[in-house]
Write a structure and sequence with these properties.
alpha/beta, 7-stranded parallel sheet, two-stranded parallel sheet, Rossmann fold, 19% strand, 243 residues
Length: 243
Amino acid sequence: MRVAFLACSAPAGDAIGNQLTEKCAFFLERGADVRVFLESDHRLHQALQNLSFNAGSVLRTRTDESQHEENWKFLTTADLIFVDYSQYYSLLDYLPLLGGGKARIIFDYHGVTPPHLWGDSNREGIEKGMCQRGLVWYADTALVHSRFAERELFAASGFPEAWIHRLGHPVDLEHLSPGPSRLDWRERLGLDAVKLLLFVGRLAPNKRVPVLIDALALMKDIHLLLVGDITDAYTTEAQRCRD
């Protein structure tokens, strides 16, 4: 079985990157020939960097023109194609050419962040992503991961609700469960018995962390602890939070 994945990127520490890695692992464990097509391999998830060529899996990026003919042949002969959608990226231009072909196409819709919540970074990709959700019509079915995303995709595209399937995010309770405390943050930060509010996530503009910080002024004896990536595109937002 040949399985292809199309995505803008698959960075480590990112929800879509993690999902893509798990989907690849599922098919690889079952002996499928898997290829991942990415617009960008910036900060690529470690598991994808370690794809085993012996298992028949290959990682190719859209910008690798030397492999274009081979990649296109794989896409047109694939049995299954997963398309991750949370913004526009140029690999999506393949969909009109692949729709109705051999492959069954699954449109994995993660929702598109409203541009006014995003900031200036990648604004064009987000705005085009809002406008081009109708590309789902080239797919055989769509996956969503919440009722909100289901309503949003239907409202934006008119794609038949019977063809949209809601698949909630599974939680590994053995991995994500309370364990013994290894670090007392109150002690480390010199705090007494105060209430501590924890935020975990990238300091991206659409997370609206400055709004959370402003809300602290309305709360009594509550401290906020932010844990997340503040490098690269998130440096400006981190400074806004500090300010």
